[in-house]
Amino acid sequence: MERSLTHIALFAALIAVLGLVPQITLGAGVPITAQTLGVMLCGTVLGARRGALAVLLFMALVAAGLPLLSGGRGGIGVFTQPSAGYFIGFPFAAFVAGWVMERTTLPVGIAAGAASVIGGIAVLYIFGISGMAIVLGKTLSEAAMLGMAFLPGDVIKVVLAGLVTQAIAQARPGSLLSRPQTLPVSAFN
Amino acid sequence: MAGITLRDLGYAAAGKVILAGLNLQLDQRRIAIIGRNGSGKTTLLRLIAGLVAPSHGAVTVEGIDPYRDRKGALQRIGILFQNPEHQILFPTVEEELAFGLRQQGMTQKDALRRTRDALAAEGRAHWAQASVSTLSGGQKQWLCLQAVLLMAPETILLDEPFSGLDLPAIARVTRRLEALPQRLITISHDPASAAKAERVIWLEAGRLHADGPADQVLPQFTAEMARIGEADADADLAG
Amino acid sequence: MLTLTSPVETPLHRLPAGAKLAGLAVFTLGLFQISNLWVLAGLALALAALQLSFGRRFASHALRMLKPLWPFVLVLALWHLWTGALADGAFLVLRMGLAVAAANLVTMTTRLSDMLSVFEMLARPLSPLLPPRRLAMAFALVIRFIPNLAERMALLAQAHRARSARRPGWRLVVPAALAALDAADQAAEALRARGGAD
């Protein structure tokens, strides 16, 4: 019980911190934000329900006025910006990623990568592109063209989500709440 | 039944035995637990506090099972973690202090009033709204101890209360602890800080190694630590 | 922690947070019903005048908070220069700016704790699923642990720098996530030591 609450809260904090540190630079020197990576990790590490709750908790604090979105953005205006669809899609992305993770028996890293493609790209883009279409007054296909600009960065994040989840599974096997527990966790609960 | 009773107490995690076969009746006012790193001292404290369930045997604190009866345990036992950073749960000082009182059934209003009174009594009224992340290590530790004291438990468990403190802070904390009427059970790896205890319990590799008055146990412990320090290469891996 | 609330006290600060949010919802829904460019331009002028009336410091803070919009302004400008429908472009830029600026105005004039209280009130119908005290506890835990995790990230980055000439980049994400998991276990234990979550 306590452990569930604190994991949700700490992963909400992790998404925030990953947004504060904009130091991830691609090979070509293109900076990408690790924040959506944090959203994917909520799903792949905590599972569907806890992962989505962690993301919702983060969103509530951002909407309430903490500048925790990458670039120091925050406040209720995040719901009316052209990128609002991505923001609103975050908990759905985490939920779907967690749902996939809970149901596949693939090795952890591959499962997390696949879960992130489905949750963090497919689901998130549906929300994000719809949001841009509405706010920018464009058709869905026009908005989709704009959205594709983020695809290379997001593909890299999917790979990272797989690697990071794999590394977590190795370092703290009992902490991967999205997977059936192989080790006794009676030490905590 | 008075005091704390450990009956054939054992604890294992992930197949590794951490504590085994402890039978102790603890009813002195000042008790020290000493031992090397990894001897199971902290696990013993967590078992007494009811934070983890024993894998074997039982713990009884003033007649209750601290793991199952959490409400009862809150009145009887408080614990100060070794690292205050692991204990603080709230962003501001007053929230951190008021939390335990609320858990004991006080209303938010009363809990905040008690908290402010306590801060004022210690000359720290201006701390109420302060962010915990701005406090120094010694101040964080003061906050954690104050949070435990506000809940007024009968026994306080202290896990290396002096680690990470500078000398003036150690003197202050020592003075504060000595004045407390409660039963204190203190973990230490430093024999000097255990010297004033009425009873010293020495754990080695999860088992009781020695148990008695400070002037008997501590000289043996000091001699043994010196011997080990000269002899081995510390190359053994845990588990 | 640093919030987006403006330190410049305005009369809007004294309005209840719930009323401001309800007003904002009505305003934003109404905004998307407007089809006349000049109505939007009038609203934009009125909003700008209101913010200027709160002083230059407040107005420049408000302007800074609109900065994340500029890539979208650029995209719209290029797009509508290309298609030649400039009035449409101006309309979309104004609508986007108004929607965000009005929301920012609410954020800038409402304290974080008041906003969170509104959220806790809105979540009350869910109380069988989500007890209000647990929600409040969750907010407090996140605010408590963000500076803590940020500091650990900074220390990890320094540890990396001490032994590597390369930038740490994504390699920090693994230890940061492990730090979050460990902190979660420690906090769970600290919570249990003082009566648990209910």
From TrEMBL, chain A:
Task: Specify one Pfam family.
Answer: BioY
Q: Where do transmembrane segments lie in this chain?
A: 51-71, 83-101, 113-136, 148-169
Which keywords label this protein? Cell membrane, Membrane, Transmembrane, Transmembrane helix, Transport
The entry's localization annotation reads:
Cell membrane
The domain of life for this entry's organism is: Bacteria
How does this protein sit in the membrane? Multi-pass membrane protein
Q: Which PANTHER family match?
A: BIOTIN TRANSPORTER BIOY, BIOTIN TRANSPORTER BIOY-RELATED
The record's similarity note reads:
Belongs to the BioY family.
The molecule here is called: Biotin transporter
TrEMBL record, chain B:
Q: Which UniProt keywords apply?
A: ATP-binding, Nucleotide-binding, Transport
The UniProt entry, under SMART domains, shows:
AAA
**Does Transport appear among the keywords?**
yes
Q: Which SUPFAM superfamilies match?
A: P-loop containing nucleoside triphosphate hydrolases
Q: Which Gene3D superfamilies match?
A: P-loop containing nucleotide triphosphate hydrolases
Q: Name any one Pfam family assigned in the record.
A: ABC_tran
GO MF terms held by the record: ATP binding
Keyword ATP-binding assigned: yes
Q: Where is the ABC transporter domain?
A: 4-230
Q: What's the superkingdom here?
A: Bacteria
InterPro entries for this protein:
AAA+_ATPase, ABC_transporter-like_ATP-bd, ABC_transpr_CbiO/EcfA_su, ECF_ABC_transporter_ATP-bd, P-loop_NTPase
Q: Locate the transmembrane regions by residue number.
A: none
Q: Which protein family is named in the record? A: Belongs to the ABC transporter superfamily.
Protein name (Swiss-Prot/TrEMBL): ABC transporter ATP-binding protein
Species annotation: Pseudogemmobacter lacusdianii
UniProtKB/TrEMBL annotation, chain C:
Give the record's membrane topology: Multi-pass membrane protein
Principal place where this protein is found?
membrane
Its subcellular locations are: Membrane
InterPro entries per record:
ABC/ECF_trnsptr_transmembrane
Q: Which UniProt keywords apply?
A: Membrane, Transmembrane, Transmembrane helix
- Annotated membrane-spanning segments are 21-49, 69-94
The name under which this protein is listed is Energy-coupling factor transporter transmembrane protein EcfT
What protein family is recorded?
Belongs to the CbiQ family.
Keyword check for Transmembrane: yes
